[in-house]
Amino acid sequence: MLLNTYEPWKFAFSRENDEIIEDSFGIIGVPFDSTTSYHSGSRLGPIVVREASFGFEKYNTVFNKDLTTTFYDFGDINVVPGNCSTTCGIIENTVNELLDMNIKPIIIGGEHSASIGSVKALTDKYGRLTVIHLDAHRDLAFDFMGERHSHATVMRRAHEMGADLVQIGIRSSSADEEEFVKSTYNIQTFKNKDVHKHMDALEYYLINIDGPIYISIDMDVVDPSIAPSVGNPTPGGLFISEIETIIQTLAHKNVVGLDVVETAADRLGDNTAVVAAKIIYDFLTLIE
Questions:
Q1: What is the pTM of this model?
Q2: Which of 103, 182, 220, 250 has a CA between 20 and 30 Å from the CA of residue 285?
Q3: Parallel, antiparallel or unpaired: strands 130-134 and 24-30
């Protein structure tokens, strides 16, 4: 058990935490949605995603491979409702605890602001990160409704930390965000139609990334016909097969962390929770 955590449930196939093996993965949940601006409920994401994980077999038939990756579920952090900045600090401290044990973080959200704390801890450890950001939105606002720590500003904060951004599935942004992307050199964009029509170009780009990679997946990147229970659903999203291809491509790279956020479901067995659990399950099956 880490400091500032408690255990409401565990992800399927996770190991007991009494004997930690280094160079493994550790799941933490972030039940926080205090800056949500449209559909609230992602604070319940960690619970429903974990529950949905028990619907999968240990043998992954999509990739013809057993899930053999060593990983642990350390439970949920104790968030501070209404205080995004303090909560991000707790996430940072918790991820640092994992890194001290040579464990790479997997975060289940919760709103997308959770990435701020995780990226900060990993940037301090590795220096420069490449953040692979799957999302319907850019999340590059300097501030949102006067708040600098927010689900809508998370990638701006990551960029300020020195991260290179690869934004995939984008189909909604502001004029200011588009101008910001044009003004900087280290944000690469593959919009939703680029993924649909030119997956080979995306795969080629991802294969050629060097250095440590952090993957951040907002569930609204998925088409809402498949995953409707998200904070800001936006039509025209990615399909499960496309996300499978992206994860399979990245699994052979130096991935140092993952988050899957913005599952805003209020019931067990929700479609979005099942898809989020599958993304984590596929990642754990494939990661080397």
A1: 0.95
A2: 220
A3: unpaired
